[in-house]
């Protein structure tokens, strides 16, 4: 009996195994079958059931395999492909983390050496304490001034000696303790960061350092960085006067560099330097540079007449090959920008290491990373444009704007009707060529020149990023559509005329079409379409739309020391790669404030001719970049607008340009006052809109009503006490919006996430109606649930799509709506919406 049961169990087990084999779970394929399946997988990784059956019919070698077995094979194949990609990604991350760990270990070693050095210096200072008092009594100063090497710079041997000395000093800054480096605020190192950034705490001049991992070879990196005009927006020209090989296989170059001034209120800088390129014994590539002085050599005085000669202290690039590919790069920028030559109010721009870090050091590392990602194909741009073409457009816009601000004589610019008291400077250029380099047919169709109206002013209590973001999103608040139309007409043959001859009106629709952005989205390139309509009946059906090519950068409020820019130029709707550009725009640069500036600070509603009203004298002796912060933040705003003109219309265009720029200045002042944090910052309990409660009171109402209707807390209980409720509501991860209960509901409040989702500001928020938030299906869903919302006090909305003010689609997983009750718990003040896990589509 037992034997019979055992035989039955064996029979059942064998039957089970056969069943598993038949189901395709354990099937061995021949090499020919695998090859046939791989061919199909290359064409279609996930074939349908009909396609699998067709495969069996068309391939005789697969006729003995069930369709279910083939389905399992494709599932396994996709899984292996996914595992392979994930393994490759993890290996890349591991290499990056290994390199970053190496950088951090080196930084730790450097800091330990610096601590040891400070301990020794402290002991020495204690020993010299008694002798110091005697030195003070004698009145003798013992301050040592660093002396620049005055070796003969006219002979190769002398230049080589200077080069070797520069190399040693540069390496001591890049990897040693020659400079007291401190981590740059807001730039914490990590696996996803661009690199490790530091600024000098106390040294002569201004200095910044960066190190990071880049997936390019050292030689390629050196070639890019040495071509400074290609990546530095501030570099006007770089010319190599002399180049000869050094005895150790390196090269020595004598270089003359010109840089743009950031505003109309200060002269530009130039540099006369020696640049030394060599390879170290460990295989690292070094490019180091310093200024030459005392030799009497350099460019002609005429070429440097509009520049102030600044000094490059030993700086450069240390590029080390990395295991597994790529390079580790160290960048040091150490300059003396001769701050004495600018008005005192602008000296923070020339005495701040944070500004140098943003403009030079961080910009260089970001550009290298951008090129690396474009090379690897990680960057995708719109409208079928190649990355190099779009990058060229950005550089042309920035360079053209800098040319307009500086107005160099050797470019053909000359100032007209300037007696030193004008707030708006008018300059003309009769010799500048505006045809594209590769296609002369795309030249501007006018005989005359270009006129530039420019001005600078101080603004207070407004973050540059916030102001530029508002100017970008709300062009109708400051721009004149007819002036844009006049500039656009200059691109079309036979239509150039003085503004007003073909009046048009702006319909209010501004469409932003993104073209591309940099790695960290610190710069955006986009096409703007302004929809216009003619007042003339016979032209009623003719499109009056205007297209602008625009770059916007510095709109991240957390960036330290960065300026914010909005630069644009009219383009033809065909937008060829070699389109001529005539850039105009705004630049806002933050100034480090000093406590003494608070009492005599200038108000925001005044335009300044700082060049004539402020004296230029010796620089103050406070440490670079260490000015204490105060509540009053100041920035310098520079505006420059360019207008083409015909010779017989020069005076008319000049008057129009002057009036237009003054109008723009007035509009910007009004906007700056409206969005000032002292007026709008909810953290200080200000009014959010006329007739609304205090922000703190509204925050209490929102949270209490949410708990009352939905039976759960909007925030953790410890976040609801005192004034912290407003701060936590403002920083809540979900987008929270409040709209009024009117026949046309408009938004009256949004937290930071809500403003980000709508891509707007608190000022412009009050112009957005509830119906503009949702798409058609969203509006229908809200209408169907509105009665339920008003009856029971809340409603839950399913996942859907809403729209930002920029026309971008925003998806959300879920949304809640509830009535916000006032303190008496009976009066409904407004409606609140919370959008959970929202993201741009």
Automatic annotation (TrEMBL):
InterPro entries: HD, HD-Zip_III, Homeodomain-like_sf, MEKHLA, START-like_dom_sf, START_lipid-bd_dom. Pfam families: Homeodomain, MEKHLA, START. It comes from the Eukaryota. SMART domains: HOX, START. Residues 152-380 form the START domain. Keywords: Coiled coil, Differentiation, DNA-binding, Homeobox, Nucleus, Transcription, Transcription regulation. Residues 20-84 form the Homeobox domain. SUPFAM superfamilies: Bet v1-like, Homeodomain-like. Residues 94-121 form a coiled coil. Residues 22-85 bind DNA. One of its GO terms (cellular component) is nucleus. GO terms for biological process: cell differentiation. One of its GO terms (molecular function) is DNA-binding transcription factor activity. It is found in: Nucleus. PANTHER family: HOMEOBOX-LEUCINE ZIPPER PROTEIN ATHB-14 (PTHR45950), HOMEOBOX-LEUCINE ZIPPER PROTEIN REVOLUTA (PTHR45950:SF10). Belongs to the HD-ZIP homeobox family. Class III subfamily. This is REVOLUTA, INTERFASCICULAR FIBERLESS, INTERFASCICULAR FIBERLESS 1, amphivasal vascular bundle. It comes from Hibiscus trionum (Flower of an hour).
């Amino acid at each position: 009996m037992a034997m019979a049961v055992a035989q039955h169990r064996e029979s059942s087990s064998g039957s089970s195994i056969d069943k598993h084999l038949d189901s395709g779970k354990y099937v061995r394929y021949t090499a020919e079958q695998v090859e046939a399946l791989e061919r199909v997988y290359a064409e279609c990784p996930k074939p349908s059931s009909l396609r699998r059956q067709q495969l069996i019919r068309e391939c005789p070698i697969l006729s003995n395999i069930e369709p279910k077995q083939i389905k399992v094979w494709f599932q396994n194949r996709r899984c292996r492909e996914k595992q392979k990609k994930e393994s490759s990604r993890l290996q890349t991350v591991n290499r990056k983390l290994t390199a970053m760990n190496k950088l951090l270990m080196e930084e730790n070693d450097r800091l330990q050496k610096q601590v040891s050095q400070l301990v020794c210096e402290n002991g020495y200072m204690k020993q010299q304490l008694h002798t110091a008092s005697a030195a003070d009594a004698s009145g003798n100063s013992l301050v040592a001034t660093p002396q620049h090497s005055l070796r003969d710079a006219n002979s190769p041997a002398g230049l080589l000696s200077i080069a070797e000395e520069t190399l040693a000093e540069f390496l001591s800054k890049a990897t040693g303790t020659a400079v007291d480096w401190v981590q740059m605020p807001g730039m914490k190192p990590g696996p996803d960061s661009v690199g490790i950034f530091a600024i000098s705490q106390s040294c002569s001049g201004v200095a910044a350092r960066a190190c990071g991992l880049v997936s390019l070879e050292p030689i390629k990196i050196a070639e890019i960085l040495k071509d400074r005009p290609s990546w530095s927006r501030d570099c006007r020209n770089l010319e190599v006067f002399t180049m000869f090989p050094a005895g150790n296989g390196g090269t020595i170059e004598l270089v003359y560099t010109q840089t743009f001034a950031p505003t109309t209120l200060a002269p530009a800088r130039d540099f006369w330097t020696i640049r030394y390129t060599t390879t170290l014994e460990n295989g690292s590539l070094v490019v180091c540079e310093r200024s030459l002085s005392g030799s009497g050599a350099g460019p002609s005085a005429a070429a440097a007449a509009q520049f102030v000669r600044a000094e490059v202290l030993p700086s450069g690039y240390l590029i080390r090959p990395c295991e597994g590919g790529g390079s580790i790069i160290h960048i040091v920028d150490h300059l003396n920008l001769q701050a004495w030559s600018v008005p005192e109010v602008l000296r923070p721009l020339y005495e701040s290491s944070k500004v140098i870090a943003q403009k030079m050091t961080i910009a260089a590392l970001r550009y290298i990373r951008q090129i690396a990602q474009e090379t690897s194909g990680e960057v995708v741009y719109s409208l079928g444009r190649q990355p190099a073409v779009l990058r060229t457009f950005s550089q042309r816009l920035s360079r053209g704007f800098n040319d307009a601000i500086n107005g160099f004589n050797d470019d053909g610019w000359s100032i007209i009707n300037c007696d030193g008291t004008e707030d708006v400077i008018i300059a003309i250029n009769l010799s500048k060529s505006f045809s594209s380099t590769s296609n002369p047919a795309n030249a501007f169709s006018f005989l005359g020149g270009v006129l530039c109206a420019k001005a600078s002013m101080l603004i207070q209590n407004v973050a540059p990023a916030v102001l530029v973001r508002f100017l970008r999103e709300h062009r109708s608040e400051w721009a004149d559509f007819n002036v844009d139309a006049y500039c656009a007409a200059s691109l079309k043959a036979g239509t150039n005329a003085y503004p007003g001859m073909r009046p048009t009106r702006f319909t209010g629709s501004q469409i932003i079409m993104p073209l591309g952005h940099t790695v960290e989205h610190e710069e955006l390139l986009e096409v703007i379409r302004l929809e216009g309509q003619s007042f003339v009946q016979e032209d009623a059906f003719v499109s009056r739309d205007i297209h602008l090519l625009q770059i916007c950068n510095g709109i991240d409020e957390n960036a330290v020391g960065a300026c914010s820019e909005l630069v644009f130029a009219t383009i033809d709707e065909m937008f060829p790669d070699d389109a001529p550009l005539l850039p105009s725009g705004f630049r806002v640069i933050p100034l480090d404030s000093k406590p003494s500036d608070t009492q005599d600070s200038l108000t925001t509603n005044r335009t300044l001719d700082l060049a004539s009203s402020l004296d230029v004298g010796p620089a103050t002796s406070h440490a670079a970049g260490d000015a204490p912060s105060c509540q009053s933040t100041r920035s310098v705003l520079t505006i420059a607008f360019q207008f083409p003109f015909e010779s017989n219309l020069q005076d008319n265009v000049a008057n129009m340009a002057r009036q237009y720029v003054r109008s723009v200045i007035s509009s910007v002042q009004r906007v700056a006052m409206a969005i000032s944090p002292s007026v709008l910052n909810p953290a200080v309990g200000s009014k959010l809109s006329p007739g609304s409660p205090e922000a703190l009171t509204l925050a209490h109402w929102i949270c209490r009503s949410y708990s009352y209707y939905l039976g759960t807390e909007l925030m953790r209980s410890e976040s609801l006490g005192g004034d912290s409720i407003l701060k936590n509501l403002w920083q809540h991860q979900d987008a929270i919006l409040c709209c009024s209960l009117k026949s046309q509901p408009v938004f009256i409040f949004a937290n930071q996430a809500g403003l980000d989702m709508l891509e707007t500001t608190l000022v412009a928020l009050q112009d957005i109606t509830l119906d503009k938030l949702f798409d058609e299906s969203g509006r229908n869903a809200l209408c169907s649930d509105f009665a339920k919302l008003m009856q029971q006090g809340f409603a839950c909305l399913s996942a859907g799509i809403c729209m930002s003010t920029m026309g971008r689609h925003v998806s959300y997983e879920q949304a809640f709506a509830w009535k916000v009750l006032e303190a008496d718990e009976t009066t409904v003040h407004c409606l609140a919406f919370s959008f959970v896990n929202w993201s741009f589509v």
